[in-house]
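User: Please fill in residues for this 70-position structure.
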């Protein structure tokens, strides 16, 4: 599961994100090909990135977060 990935503005469009994902797959997932990634619909850059690396939309769901500020 990929929950959050970030690349600094200076390193975008240099395949840094792809290299991080590739490293994680090899190191932690034993080259298994099932990856679950989450983002919000309006995060255009994340959606483009996931599409670029070959991930496909399988499902959409709403996740609500409860914040308790007490």
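Assistant: Residues filled in for all 70 positions:
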């Amino acid at each position: 599961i990929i929950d959050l990935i970030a690349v600094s503005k200076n390193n975008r469009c240099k395949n840094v994100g792809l290299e991080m994902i590739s490293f994680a797959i090899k190191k932690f997932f034993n080259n298994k090909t099932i990856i679950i990634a989450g983002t919000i619909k309006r995060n255009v850059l994340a959606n483009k990135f996931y599409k670029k690396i070959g991930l496909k939309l399988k499902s959409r769901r709403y996740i609500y977060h409860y914040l308790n500020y007490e």
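For context: The mean pLDDT is 83.
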